[in-house]
Every structure is written in structure tokens, then in C-alpha cells.
Amino acid sequence: AGSRYFIEKPPLASYDDIDARMRAGEINLAIEIPPGFAADIARGRDVEVGAWFDGANPSRANTVQGYVQGIHASWIMRKARETYGDAALAGSFELVTRFRYNPDVKSVVAMVPAVIPMLLLMIPAILTTLSVAREKELGSIINFYVTPVTRLEFLLGKQLPYIALAMLNFFLMTGMAVFFFHVLLTGSFFGLTLAALIYVTATTALGFLVSVFITSQVAALFATAMLTMIPAVSYSGLIDPVTSLSGFGRVIGEIYPTTWFVTAARGSFSKAFGIAELIEPMLAMGIAVPVILGACTIFLKKQAR
Prior knowledge:
- The chain has helices spanning 15-23, 37-42, 58-84, 107-138, 142-146, 151-179, 189-211, 217-235, 247-255, 257-270, 275-299, and strands at 29-32, 50-53.
- By secondary structure, the chain is an all-alpha fold.
- It has a two-stranded antiparallel sheet.
- The chain is elongated, with a radius of gyration of 25 Å.
């Protein structure tokens, strides 16, 4: 199912423990088997088994739910055959489904927060790419070659206005998510804003990394769109969980900044993530910033070829 399953000894201590582990993204499924389960079954008593699903991602939750229901039905049929023979039908039982997060299992709750990282990736990256590619195409990059400004100063000076523009887009999209699509922001708005700031710093730097190798604006536009959106859509957990990937795709999913901001956005909207829960995504995205800017600084030449 592409999810993480845990068999715990000792079991999870309480509902609060389950809630905390799901908030942190450590588990997507928790099975609650009450004490004396086997003895009650042997005596023919009514028993209840709880299965906790993380419904923040409806696609994954439905998949996990299907596996659990299949396991449950298989167990019921096996016990019935052991007791009444092969001709027996399943015993009397009732399945009651409740989701801890996104209880209505609406796709809009998962998709709207995930679209924000997509747009904050593609648009800022394209703008920064075109800003450098345009100077190369028009020849105004010569000003950079003949002045004492360093490569890092040139990049930061180009980057800061686009970071501000991207943050404005973030506030507008967050407002649309809350007021137009009616997806409640249950977590820390300040924490999500800080995570967005780190994220757009990485995405604008990613645009510079493409621009240092390309001189044509048209080529830069297409290259940036392909190199940003394909990994983001395929490997960031937008549709399929990163844990379901394997090989090089899994590596890309683990290190790509969009993966971590998708986690931060969905967690802030659906799981009431606070600053503490957002620290890990912010650190992961923060590591990407100096790496990408460092690569840009290395490959950006201070003289024309």
C-alpha cells in the first residue's frame, strides 16, 4: 500500500499516543486489539477491534483501509470454517469507519494544500531562470562581467525580489485555500509561513541553477518546467507516498524540497502541525538552499566564453 506499518511491543499506550504518532507522520495505521481478545472470541463474546487510519491523504487511507478490511474478512471466514465447516458464511459483524484526519475523506483537503508547493516551485523557478537567461540573450550580462560584484552577490541580488513575489503568491494561495475552497488551516500559520520562506528560497535558487547552463529564454523556460514539475509530481508524494517508491526515484523523493513542503502544507492544514512538527521539513529544505546556491555560484562564470 506504500504505507508504513508497525507491530509494536508494548503496544501504543493510549489514544493520545496514536494521535501524536500520526501527527508526526510516523504511522499511517494503528491496530487496537483489546485485552482478552482471544479469550472473548473463544467464549463467543462480542469484541471490538479498532483500526486508526491517517485520512490526511485520502488515496493512501483508502488503500490501507482496503487491506485492513480484506485481512478482517479473511480472518472472519477462516474462523467460521474452523467452527462450522466450509459451508459456513461469515459471522455477524459490523464495520464502522471513522477517520481521525479529513473525516469526510474529501480529496480537496489533500490536493489543495499540495498544489501550493507545486505553484511555488514552478513559477518562482521559471521567473529566476528567465531573469538570468534574458540578460544573457540581450547581452546585458556584460555588466556583471565587468563589475567587481561577486557571483554570490549577483545571485542574491537577483533572488531577493522573486522571493518576496513568491511569498506574496503564498499568502494569496493560502487565502484562496481557506476562503474559496474552505480547507481549514488547523496548524500554525507562522510555522507554515516560515517553511514557505525556506522553500521559495530553494526553488528560486533552483531556477538559477538551470539558467547558468542555458542562454536562450525559450530553452530556459521549457527546461525549468520539465526539471521542476516532473520530479515534483512523480516523486514528492503528491499522489503516491514517497515510501512506496524504490530505487533512484525514492532517493529523489527523499531529497527534493517539494517533498518536504508537501508534508508541511498538508500537515499544517489537516493535522494541526505546530512549529515542533515543522522543524524536520524546514531543516530538510534549509539544507537544500546552500547546496543549490553553492552549485550556482560554482557554475556561474564571471566572464563570457
